[in-house]
Design goal:
The complex is a heterodimer of chains A (290) and B (242).
Chain A lengths: L4 H21 L7 H23 L19 H25 L5 H23 L11 H18 L4 H20 L1 H5 L3 H5 L6 E6 L7 H6 L8 H21 L4 H24 L14
Helix pairs in contact in A: 1-2, 1-3, 1-4, 1-5, 1-11, 2-3, 3-4, 4-5, 5-6, 5-11, 6-10, 10-11
Chain B lengths: L11 E6 L8 H13 L4 E2 L7 E2 L3 E9 L6 E8 L7 H4 L6 E3 L6 E3 L9 H5 L6 E2 L6 E2 L5 H4 L12 H5 L5 E5 L6 H9 L15 E3 L13 H4 L5 H12 L1
Parallel strand pairs in B: 1-11
Antiparallel strand pairs in B: 1-10, 2-3, 4-5, 6-7, 8-9
The chains are: A mainly alpha (290), B alpha+beta (242).
């Protein structure tokens, strides 16, 4: 699949933002005044910034509000509702934290839970797609949620943030391990795609079109896959191992900033791979596995 | 609504006969022509170095290695299969993508489409293409603006690809009616679904190419194995040694 920068930025930034908002909602930190304004602003900035980035990959964004209508069937629509509901529910919590209004903590707890639901709906947009076997697995939402929790805990400077960061690494390894065999396990071949397996073994004689097309650009992305092995190591190191070590060194707030920055860079690399390595079954018609 | 209908009154769709298709691309052209005039199918740089464009129907060609028989070339038109369990419909966040309860045609309401591309991702068959100029999703409409169009002559009230096919490899009809031509063809010729394990329940069916008889050697075959003799043979040996 084509790793569109807007979608990578959207899912990474909003995942981090909602993860941080979840911890803020749960009261992991007790900021007040300007500190609260800054921290809640960071959470909201990341979450909303990510959501804004997602609109850049829309061909026809003027209809974007219609995306709220189909929550009964569409995960993308559910994500729209979940994100707006989270942001709305946590707004009074944030104001209470900034101005010391003393709202009951239950609102923040509920908002924090809803933030994770939002991340889950984001993940399900990809997980539901059967035509991309690498995504169609329960580890996909686990990966999205683990990034949100680890990123949020890191930004919150929690003591057990390194554990969550290392868990991200373990999830990534598991995801890659199962993902590498997913296409083969789905069992689709050029033979099943065309039904010509009834006759014999097909291979491409001529392409359907010699020029480019939306399908080839969007679904049959192969550029840069040769660096996948190196990128996996970079993603694993930056998203998981290095920030976990940085957090163990007593560097104060700068340690948190450094760890979060490294983790975000690693998350971006991992998310790029999530798209670039995903193979769509339509590639079979073109003799490409992805 | 992007909820799929429980059942559809009719099941309109196509039967594509891979035995008679010759891959002439007439269906591709007829489809592009009719729908470009209707919903608009843009091209980018069509006469330049890097042409690209939106098509609702594309014809592939494959060579098939057949056990104990000569290899076969199969030309393979690919377009929307108007699935009963269409994954492209349920993923749509706006309700732009829908399946009609009356005849089962899967359509895009372009006025509600945000161009997110998720429906194209959900389709295993590559039936949907985003129009680069309009930013909305395009797909086969089964020529919904022809089949019910009373201003057209009756023989023209079928999809453009079917109407134009010079070898009659494409058939249009109602699969809900067991007596229809398409249902009969599927029953007689073993019409099949593409990627049935994807759980999409396609309406369109493909008829398999008939298996060819055993290969016979060409009468000219002995002439292919020419051994040079005389001076030419001597030259051949000498030059081979250098």
């Amino acid at each position: 699949m084509h790793p569109a920068p807007s979608v990578i930025l959207f899912s990474t930034l909003s995942g981090l933002g909602f993860g941080f908002l979840a911890f803020l909602g749960w009261g992991a930190l007790h900021p007040s005044g300007w500190a609260a304004f800054f921290l809640w602003g960071l959470g909201y900035g990341l979450a909303v910034g990510g959501l804004m980035a997602s609109t850049f990959h829309l061909g026809n964004p003027k209809n974007a509000l219609k995306a709220f209508t189909q929550w009964r069937t569409s995960w993308l629509s559910r994500e729209a509702w979940a994100s707006v509901a989270t942001l709305a529910l946590l707004a009074p919590v944030a104001l209470s934290s900034i101005f010391g209004l003393g709202l009951p903590p239950v609102l923040g707890q509920l908002g924090g839970l809803l933030a994770l639901v939002t991340v889950f709906t984001t993940a399900m947009i990809y997980t539901q797609i059967k035509a991309v076997p690498r995504w169609h697995h329960w580890l996909t939402p686990v990966m999205f949620l683990s990034f949100a929790l680890a990123g949020g805990a890191t930004l919150s400077g929690l003591v057990w943030a390194p554990v969550l960061l290392l868990a991200v690494g373990a999830v990534l390894l598991a995801l890659w391990r199962t993902g590498d065999g997913a296409f083969a396990r789905a069992g689709q071949t050029m033979g099943t795609a065309t039904g010509l397996d009834q006759l014999g073994v097909p291979s491409v004689l001529d392409p359907a079109h010699t020029a480019g097309s939306y399908l080839k650009r969007e679904m049959i992305f192969v550029v840069g896959r040769k660096h996948a092995a190196k990128l996996r190591m970079i993603a694993l190191a930056l998203a998981s191992i290095v920030p976990a070590i940085v957090l163990l060194v007593p560097l104060g707030v700068w340690g948190i900033v450094l760890a979060a920055g490294l983790h975000l860079a690693g998350a971006l690399a991992a998310r790029w791979l999530f798209f670039a390595e995903a193979e769509h079954v339509v590639g079979l018609y073109y003799g490409a596995r992805g | 609504m992007t909820a799929l209908p429980q059942a559809t009154e009719k099941k309109l769709g196509l039967v594509i006969d891979l035995d008679t298709c010759v891959g002439c691309q007439a269906c591709v052209t007829a489809c592009k022509g009719w729908n470009d005039a209707g919903i608009g199918l843009s091209d980018q740089d069509p006469y330049g170095a890097d042409p690209s464009g939106t098509f609702l129907n594309r014809v592939h060609s494959y060579q098939v290695a057949v056990p104990d028989a000569p290899a076969q070339v199969v030309t393979f038109p690919r377009s929307c299969l108007h699935c009963d369990n269409a994954p492209c419909v349920t993923v749509c966040p706006t309700g732009a993508s829908y399946k009609r309860a009356e005849d089962g045609i899967v359509l895009v309401n372009e006025d509600a489409c945000i161009g997110c591309g998720l429906c194209a991702w959900a389709c295993p068959y590559g039936a949907r293409e985003m129009d680069a100029a309009q930013g909305v999703m395009k797909k086969c409409t089964l020529c919904v603006d022809r089949i019910y169009n009373e201003t057209l002559a009756e023989e023209d009230r079928e999809p453009a690809c079917v109407r134009t096919c010079p070898t009659n490899a494409r058939h249009f009809g109602d699969f809900a009616d067991p007596e229809s031509t398409v249902s009969q063809l599927v029953a007689q010729r073993g019409g099949y679904d593409l990627m049935p394990d994807m759980g999409t329940n396609p309406t369109n069916k493909y008829l398999p190419p008939r298996k060819k008889g055993p290969g016979t050697a060409s009468p000219l075959a002995p002439l292919l194995d020419i051994k040079a003799t005389g001076i030419a043979g001597w030259l051949d040996r000498m030059l081979g040694k250098i």
